[in-house]
Amino acid sequence: MSYLFHTDEDRREMLKSIGAESIDEIINDQVPEAVRLKRPLNLPPACNELALTAEMTRLAARNASADSHVCFLGGGAYDHFIPAAVDEIASRGEYYTSYTPYQAEVSQGNLQVMFEYETLVTQLTGLGVSNASLYDGGSAATEAVLMALSMQRGRNKVITTDVVHPQYRDILVAYLKNIDAELVVVPSDENGHSKPMIDAIDDKTACVLIQHPNFVGQLESVSEIAAAAKEAGALTIQVFDPVSLGRLKRPGDMGVDIAIAEGQSLGNPLAYGGPYLGIMACRDELVRRLPGRIAGQTTDRRGKRCWVLTLQTREQHIRREKATSNICSNQTLLALRATVHLSLLGPEGLKETADHCIAKTAYAKEVIAKSERFEVVGEGPSLKEFVVRDLGADVAGLLAHAREQGLLAGIDMTPMCVGGSEASEPAVALPSRYEQCFLVAVTEKRSRVEIDRWANVLCEAPSMATV
Amino acid sequence: MSYLFHTDEDRREMLKSIGAESIDEIINDQVPEAVRLKRPLNLPPACNELALTAEMTRLAARNASADSHVCFLGGGAYDHFIPAAVDEIASRGEYYTSYTPYQAEVSQGNLQVMFEYETLVTQLTGLGVSNASLYDGGSAATEAVLMALSMQRGRNKVITTDVVHPQYRDILVAYLKNIDAELVVVPSDENGHSKPMIDAIDDKTACVLIQHPNFVGQLESVSEIAAAAKEAGALTIQVFDPVSLGRLKRPGDMGVDIAIAEGQSLGNPLAYGGPYLGIMACRDELVRRLPGRIAGQTTDRRGKRCWVLTLQTREQHIRREKATSNICSNQTLLALRATVHLSLLGPEGLKETADHCIAKTAYAKEVIAKSERFEVVGEGPSLKEFVVRDLGADVAGLLAHAREQGLLAGIDMTPMCVGGSEASEPAVALPSRYEQCFLVAVTEKRSRVEIDRWANVLCEAPSMATV
Amino acid sequence: QSTQLLFELSRAGRRAHRLGDLDVPSVNVDDLFTAESLAETPPPLPELAEGDVVRHFVCLSTLNMSVDTHFYPLGSCTMKYNPKRNERIASLPGFLNVHPLQHESGLQGLLELLYELQGMFAEISGLPGVSMQPAAGAHGELAALLVAAAYFREQGSDRSVVLTADSAHGTNPASAQMAGFKTKTVKSNANGLVDLEDLKAKLDDKTAVFMLTNPNTLGLFDSQIEEINQLVHDAGALIYLDGANMNAILGITRPGDFGADLMHYNPHKTFSGPHGGGGPGAGPICVRDFLAKYLPGPIVTRVENENATSDDDRYTYHLTSPSGDSIGRVRSFFGNTGVLVRAYIYLRTYGGDGLRHVSEDAVLGANYLLSKVKHFLDVPHGNRCMHEFVASASRLKKEKHLSAMDIAKRILDYGFHAPTVYFPLVVDEAVMVEPTETESKQTLDAFVEALFRITEEGEELIHDAPHSTRISRPDDVTAARRPVLKWTDAAGESAT
Amino acid sequence: QSTQLLFELSRAGRRAHRLGDLDVPSVNVDDLFTAESLAETPPPLPELAEGDVVRHFVCLSTLNMSVDTHFYPLGSCTMKYNPKRNERIASLPGFLNVHPLQHESGLQGLLELLYELQGMFAEISGLPGVSMQPAAGAHGELAALLVAAAYFREQGSDRSVVLTADSAHGTNPASAQMAGFKTKTVKSNANGLVDLEDLKAKLDDKTAVFMLTNPNTLGLFDSQIEEINQLVHDAGALIYLDGANMNAILGITRPGDFGADLMHYNPHKTFSGPHGGGGPGAGPICVRDFLAKYLPGPIVTRVENENATSDDDRYTYHLTSPSGDSIGRVRSFFGNTGVLVRAYIYLRTYGGDGLRHVSEDAVLGANYLLSKVKHFLDVPHGNRCMHEFVASASRLKKEKHLSAMDIAKRILDYGFHAPTVYFPLVVDEAVMVEPTETESKQTLDAFVEALFRITEEGEELIHDAPHSTRISRPDDVTAARRPVLKWTDAAGESAT
């Protein structure tokens, strides 16, 4: 049977040592008759590797992918290039079939990678300390808010804006529902900037949560908002894009207290949304409230430098209900990928990637704006993402048309706006100004030929309305 | 620059230690001015990983493959299933970036694999000894002939037949042209059997070379031929199909002296013909004439069992012009794949694979024979390969039609027949009875749905001639 | 093999990755962006050549023990063989390179898989409502507790207490706390099972959920399960099953059949998703039908097509976004799809019968080890177990100063990963062994032999163990007291 | 980590791979085939579970040193970094799963690549005729010598002697012998270069080919190359260049420009194809135009399409099968395509300028090592070298009983693969070091430091080296005298 080892003879010998007649006897001894399942599980029949590979290959081929289509989708997950060396390393069994480094002596590989990852994240963010990863960017944002709330007893207000990733806000709403906290979502201004949130900060505010560049691709006045928060005694949490830091100022250099990011962009495949990598860094002083595992440096009994899991008194397996979070597993394998990716890029590679994104995005904005049907929404430069309004008011049809032409041309924002199907409550909606708009991401992978084709297909799409 | 390490500062420091002003100075010191290249090499410009990956992906997509098409091609290379574990293991850097085990202490991995491979080949063939691999089945067949010639001083005749793989015979012709040897290619009988060769064996015959199952998928009377050869003092060399040994008698059990095979079927991808794996085993007595590397067991200075390259006095780096062959590198990585593959299959898996090939081939013969246009050529059962005659006499058009329907439906045998474009001389031609025939291989991978579609597409193909 | 850090290998000016010239007009970034936005220099990342990067990480990997290289009987973690076909199939571009915000029209293959998987999870658990969004077991616990909270909120109930067993994983109380509940601990009895009297005493009209691990962390199936079921539900509370130990009971008994109202799976344990050095995992949850509407989303639904022409378009699959009664989301996008795809492949490989054999052989292996180990190590909770058991080094500690930690360290020298030690807390000097079904009898015998030899070895040899690893007994105390959590130039110089 | 053999892990009845039920009618094999054909049982292969197979081979791999894990300065083997992009791209199904007997209409992408590669090989060598069929360097030598033989045959010449240098790779004389030539050896002079007087003495009207390695195996470019060129060609013979050392001269000088008429490449060395533990390699050959018609085939040709509508169909590519004057085939099918694809990717990655930098840095690295090593090891042939150099332990052997072999064994303990030793034969106690261009100065410094320390270490320590490897100094003599070339039950029992 597939991966099982025991032959009938093995089983007989083992039962003899146990002193049981059968495996059933052992099980029936413990599992009361009344709760035993009296029938086989109703699952599809066992399938061998050849047949299953063939079937799954057909199934996979039925999905549009960033390989079969040209991908201009973003919204928190991006089609960046992943060097082959990243896959080669992450596919080593010693990494992907090992577990949490409970025995440091036989886990120095993973522990050193964690330590290197943490260091890279601090270099990237300009903040003092990083954990070894969280589940994803979205849940990391909420963990950061919970961290801020737990530091700021007596303050229970969390301020964010309607241009922070809607799904990230959705998580926040779910997590905060049963605890003593108030979420305030401040409307952005007509350019999609969050500066108006400054006025909402008060002495009950535990933290402000911003995204920069934000969900609609706009740059925020991070330093200004962080300064206002600081003055009011609140912490500033920034959601950042790792690739943007090839060019943009680092969170730590703008007064941010806790920086979080979706680390997918750093060498991790799109994978229909997961597994992803939650990056979190904070100022040194906040370390004892930082959720998740942390690797630290120490020496062994012979004085050799080595690495261990440390500060475990924050964690659930020691502190149980008094832990800073319930997080147990982390995303080591994805953190490894990010570590390898950043090692290959280095400072100049990261900068070059950002520069290519900027130039290609600028080019895409330029070519799409040539059509009378489309309007780029929001002023100012873009890192790799921007919003386009369909003056033909048929975004759904437009994108469907593009899909047929092999293009994943953008993300329809209409369902995310107030009253849209994905905006389950006002706190998670986008401003209504983004109705009949779509969000476009242009990474360094997109060639001029692809961008031109994208613009052509969109411009020549049939429209329901008349422009 | 791509994979280079040295920074300008490194280079300066290194030059200082060397006592040279520049690298050019070092080079010009040795390479006379007159022979230096005074211009840059005229190659395409350097290309980065992203762009090259994109370009090569497009190039690869322009090839029909056993993934994009359903493959019924054989003729010495087969679309057998390769379990994922084979790829996983062979893609470990410790295997594929190491080299010949010159230092046994740091090559025990490769050496043990070679020893295991050799053992598996002896188990598979029923012969006493195996080398650690040769280039491919075709060149291995010629190496076996050379081996036989070198053992049989005074005998210079090599007898084979016109149903041995034409390309294998082509190699033989090329290698024998400058040495004292006579190649006799005996015509097969009308059923494609090689028995008539028995009459050609005489006291000048060094060896007979047969293939079983042969190129046209027929079983040969191996024991009978080997017995006749033995009586005349000649050696018998058999080209075998590893998968067939799940069911067929082993070469060693039929009186064969040297068995060779193309090992591609054992876990190695089609790869447009290479790298492949030349398998060679022989009777114990012939070991000192066996070409190629051999790993053997010994003990180290502490008495531990271990493995080394051995019997190196046969090899070119010791014996130079007196070596048994000039072969230096072998195909360790492909031998590793075969070793893993056979370990996963075991005796029952190999038998089951052969059984599936047999049943699916029988089914394919049955369904194609239903059409009046086609006739299965040759009597008797087939392992996985058989010949179909197109009574419409338009094999080229037929197969082109099938390709358009996504089928690699068979191999056109016409060009291989006497006078055909691939039959450069009579010694390498197929008998003319195979004109307007095609060779079909059906492995365990082919599903009933695929076989039915194959038959339908062929039967419904337009025909130039009228049946 | 160097164990230098990346940062120490760095040399200014080296470069591995490079993009070529732009094929679009270049822009002057300094003009385009405000000075306020731009950094003066990119982050001070290390500068390396590709060959260095590869060798560095390949060599580091060899310092890990892993399932691919070693027997890894880490109790409670189900370190079973991770099938290579899972990795290959999950890496097909149609699964791996799919964007999470693609339109569902281009995702029918994947959604079909996920829909089928939801059904399999429901069948194995006996609980029909399934959400696959949570990213890990603990995340599933939290999500399920948020579901319970939403349920009670709609009921107008003020139940605010979660009961957890003293033998429970630490995540149980931590998750309850995060979900806004107060927690109380229920004791274990002398047999290692739930102390029913203590449970009765703590159950009241404030009790929202009793979190149960069954089989529990001692590897014992609680034979009182029917009574527990009765007590908790009579008190108006829900039962949550921590599914960490599902590998013991696949096809044998179902949480939904023995009283659980909510549960999570750990597909990276039970369904062979690799552990990834600590993650990623996944934490799909299953609930009874009356709780299904509160589940986090999206989940996959399907509609039959009346005009279908082939098997491929018989159904159209949809994502149902959280709305209405749903608690919303617990992470971005769908979930840890890659881990789920592997679980699906695993389940398809075994089928229903095969899955029961998995648990049978897991139970067989654990009981076999137990039958051997009990001759030289105390096993406080009986002669039989399910898929794992907990021995105690408490006597050895008294008699020979040989602690659970010492055993764990010394067994590394024999080429085995250590069992889990000091958990569960209810056993003194706990040594928790879970062999899984994917180890041979030969390996189990060699492990027993090694364990036995350790109990006979000299104290000093063991206290200094491990001897064969690159490092031995790192100083955890200093690590925590004077944390060095990142490399800096100075740290690099001081310690090598 | 067990080092048991597969056969010792086997247990009757275990099984990893399984096909399902047949979807076609099953046949009774015993009826279908004659009893004469059928074996009574399948071959006695080992019986294993998938988990065992994987762990076995993963663990075995870690007993190898490799480029991915260690500096591997094995002279003459060019153990450079093997780029991971090569592996990824070569594994695309459109390259990897292509059948060798497919019709060329479905191979235009691959044939375009191979056509371009032929051109690159011609450009780098300065020799316009290219065949990529040979499977390895030695195979290329043989193929080229068969080409030369065919040429002389057509000329009606009876030239039957091949001259090889005494410093040549052993494959040179062995290939000549296989091709039906007699061989004579040309001596090296005191500078390690071709002894021109000896060459003159041996060149006559029977000489067919002079096989030259340049740079030679001492790492020296023969500065007399113009004279050699003159002498050999004046004698009516051809010059064959052994291309093993091409890594030294890419873009610097071309064999065709310094007199070679035929040559082979080792793409697995020069163009970064991995060495695969001993293979596969490839051995494409290049020849002057008048020799091109004798090349083994098939080779790729192209025809311009007049009606092309896009870049993709601008040309149609064809395979030209051997015929007419061609020597025929030297192996089945096209050649070692997988290795060639990797070479193509490598060449595209560097481009022409980049390729020259490869050789420059390879030469720089070797000279840097030489400049350090010569202070404590004799380097008989000068202060400068090309991409490698040969030191001699001869003095150390006399003074300290420290042989080249001892150095090779001891350096393993320092975490470096050993240099090539005892080759070339013209240097006593030769230690042949080739760093390649893909190692950092830090690594080179550490290697020099280790070498130096070894020359200072105690005799005993070194004679028992290596100490850190699983085995040390295997008994080669017994291995050859009483060969054990396969596992048998008995052998398994006697030695563990």
Automatic annotation (TrEMBL), chains A, B:
Enzyme class: oxidoreductase
Glycine cleavage system P-protein N-terminal domain: residues covered: 2-406
Keyword DNA repair appears in the UniProt entry: no
The keyword Lyase is annotated on this UniProt entry: no
Keywords linked to the UniProt accession: Oxidoreductase
Coiled-coil residues: none
Recorded catalytic activity of this chain's protein: N(6)-[(R)-lipoyl]-L-lysyl-[glycine-cleavage complex H protein] + glycine + H(+) = N(6)-[(R)-S(8)-aminomethyldihydrolipoyl]-L-lysyl-[glycine-cleavage complex H protein] + CO2
EC code: 1.4.4.2
InterPro entries to which the protein is assigned, alphabetical: GcvPA, GDC-P_N, PyrdxlP-dep_Trfase, PyrdxlP-dep_Trfase_major, PyrdxlP-dep_Trfase_small
MF term (GO), any: glycine dehydrogenase (decarboxylating) activity
Stored Pfam families: GDC-P
One GO BP annotation of this record: nucleoside metabolic process
Primary role: The glycine cleavage system catalyzes the degradation of glycine. The P protein binds the alpha-amino group of glycine through its pyridoxal phosphate cofactor; CO(2) is released and the remaining methylamine moiety is then transferred to the lipoamide cofactor of the H protein.
PANTHER family assigned: GLYCINE CLEAVAGE SYSTEM P-PROTEIN, GLYCINE DEHYDROGENASE (DECARBOXYLATING)
Subunit structure of this chain's protein: The glycine cleavage system is composed of four proteins: P, T, L and H. In this organism, the P 'protein' is a heterodimer of two subunits.
Record family assignment: Belongs to the GcvP family. N-terminal subunit subfamily.
Name of the protein described by the UniProt record: Probable glycine dehydrogenase (decarboxylating) subunit 1
The organism of origin for this protein: Rhodopirellula islandica
Protein's gene: gcvPA
